[in-house]
Write a structure and sequence with these properties.
BirA Bifunctional Protein, domain 2, eight-stranded mixed sheet, 22% strand, disordered N terminus, three-stranded mixed sheet
Length: 272
């Protein structure tokens, strides 16, 4: 794994002592070549954090072309047509770990997954949303984008903690999942190729009968001259102002757990 600070000419930020919390493992990877397995890795990390086997962990990865469906999507009458529409557009379907409606990932996006111990996970929902949205906003602004927190009218997978550009185009969505002793805050940052998001979601949202405005979909490269690597580094640096960062790679026990549950994130599987 390349050190997270290796892609930036800026020095890593020093955590503010007043904000310092437990150490945070940082994992940078380019995925594992299988959409369901990539999702399962995020779940395996969460479950191992919940079991006390891993400390707080942030994974920033390059995903496969995929539409991630929620339980709500699976209950819709048009779900199977939505999955077929995603495939016709060149995107695999997976069952997402967190979030409300279908969302798109592709190699021009960054998938983020932050799992941390939480004795009472429900008590910190707003704080975790705020930490993540603030960190993303800080990172995007450092790269020259007019980033703001808030829902854009007509955005896909709408949420009050979405991050947008100039109040017009959504570029990042955030969701959460809670276990007994841990919480996952995850989602997607669109660095480039916003048209791919629209291409995948158009047949999906049509089938699911979800109203949205494709014009509200954006990417960071539309307003800032940044690369995928620069954005990922900026996100890592934003977290370094809040946590004590230590590099980490997906280890054997985590991968074994992910491989065992990967089938549960395939839309063909009958269990949800």
């Amino acid at each position: 794994m390349t050190p997270w600070f290796g892609c930036s000419t800026r020095a890593p930020s020093t955590p503010h002592s007043a904000d310092r919390v437990e150490p945070l493992q940082l994992c940078l990877d380019d995925g594992f070549g299988d959409a369901a397995l990539d999702t399962a890795v995020a779940r395996a990390v969460l479950e191992r954090v919940d079991a006390g086997e891993l400390p707080a962990t942030l994974r920033l990865s390059r995903p496969q072309p995929v539409v991630a469906f929620s339980r709500q999507d699976a209950a819709a009458p048009g779900f199977r047509h939505a999955v077929e529409g995603a495939r016709d557009a060149g995107f695999a379907g997976v069952r997402r770990l967190a979030g409300g409606r279908a969302a798109v990932f592709h190699p021009g996006t960054i998938a983020f997954a932050w799992s941390l111990p939480a004795p009472r996970p429900a008590d910190g929902i707003s704080d975790r949303f705020r930490t993540m949205s603030d960190a993303l906003t800080e990172a995007f602004r450092a790269c020259g984008a007019d980033a703001r927190v808030g829902e854009v009218p007509g955005e896909y997978c709408a949420g009050r903690w979405s991050v947008n550009i100039a109040g017009r185009h959504k570029v990042a969505g955030i969701g959460q999942r809670l276990l007994r002793r841990a919480a996952h805050t995850g989602g997607v940052v669109v660095v480039e190729d916003a048209p791919a998001i629209v291409r995948a979601l158009t047949p999906v949202y049509d089938a699911l009968e979800v109203p949205w405005d494709p014009a509200a979909t954006g990417a960071l490269d539309l307003t800032a001259a940044v690369s995928w690597e620069e954005i990922r580094t900026a996100i890592a640096e934003a977290f370094a102002t809040r946590f004590e960062i230590a590099g980490w790679e997906v280890d054997g026990p985590t991968m074994q757990r992910a491989q065992a549950i990967a089938h549960e994130h395939q839309v063909e599987d009958t269990t949800w």
